[in-house]
Specification:
Elements (H helix, E strand, L loop, with lengths): L1 H36 L4 H18 L3 H11 L5 H23 L5 H22 L10
Keywords: Membrane, Transmembrane, Transmembrane helix
């Protein structure tokens, strides 16, 4: 019982850390990309970052059921593989949500704004669930 509670707490903590770092990294990436062409375009990147944070925060509560389901069906997978699969699945879900709810013309124009967030999320998962992370029990 205590072990399950600690595991759930660790999953929630890592999920919130993943959400924070991927949104910060993606927004920073867009901020640099937009500001290289014109310095005044930084506000566009910040607004995209705000929308990305809101959309991705609505998906965060799905993480615990996802890990529970993945652990029961694919018990041989490492947590890193499950997290990478989850990031990819939730990225696709978030993009479909944005296409449905936002006035965006095509998937290619959405990908130009959302790929930095996928890159930041993948890097964060590789850091959080890397080989060095197993030494530090949380």
């Amino acid at each position: 019982m205590v072990q399950q509670l600690l595991s759930t707490y660790s999953t929630i903590r890592r999920t919130l850390l993943l959400w924070l770092l991927s949104n910060f990294g993606g927004t920073l990436w867009l901020l640099i990309d937009f500001s290289l062409d014109r310095l005044n375009d930084y506000s566009i990147a910040l607004m995209v970052g705000l929308v990305a944070a809101i959309v991705s925060l609505s998906i965060v509560p799905l993480v615990l059921p996802f890990f529970a389901l993945m652990s029961s069906y694919y018990s041989g997978w490492s947590r890193r593989s499950m997290a990478l699969a989850g990031i990819t699945a939730f990225y696709i879900l978030a993009n479909q949500l944005l296409l449905l709810l936002m006035p965006i013309d095509s998937l290619s124009s959405l990908l130009a704004l959302s790929l930095p967030y996928l890159g930041a999320a993948l890097l964060t998962v590789l850091w959080l669930y890397g080989p060095a992370a197993s030494r530090y029990k949380s």
